[in-house]
Amino acid sequence: MHRYVARANVDHYLDLLRDTNLTAPRRSTTIALLIAELDQLSEDAEHLEFAETRVAGSRQQVAQAAARRDSLSFGTSEREDAEKHLIHLENVHTVLDDFCHRLRHGIGSRHD
């Protein structure tokens, strides 16, 4: 049951982090909560597929945000907002990708 709750929390925090109107303090808090949930899952290699799926989704969100930013004119507030959102999504992607790497490393070190 604990695994299910942790996975549900990860998905909930990822949904919250997609909000472009999230304030910087709430974003920081949400990322900290996300990392804490990921750390709980890092003890078990069976979560690798779950994590890889979330990384793939995150990668797609980054690509979409980059395309949206690139479609906007330089020097506009819309482009600046899109750039900030893109940077935020890239940071979230890095957190998820690092989690996957830790899981893979843990799996690899258990087999050595």
What can be said about the biggest beta sheet?
none
Count of helices? 4
Helicity, as a percent range = over 70%
Q: Give the helices and strands as they follow along the chain.
A: HHHH
Structural class: mainly alpha
Overall pLDDT: 89
Low-confidence stretches: none
Number of strands: 0
The Rg value, from CA coordinates, equals 16 Å
The best one-word shape is: elongated
Description:
By secondary structure, this protein is mostly helical. Helices cover 82% and strands 0% of the residues. It contains 4 helices and no strands. Helix 1 (2-17) runs antiparallel to helix 2 (24-41), helix 2 (24-41) runs parallel beside helix 4 (77-111) and helix 3 packs antiparallel against helix 4 (77-111). It starts with a helix and ends with a helix.
Produce the secondary structure layout.
Layout: H1 2-17, H2 24-41, H3 48-70, H4 77-111
Characteristics of this structure?
112 residues, mainly alpha, 4 helices, elongated
Describe this structure in a few short sentences.
By secondary structure, the chain is mainly alpha-helical. Helix content is 82%, strand content 0%.
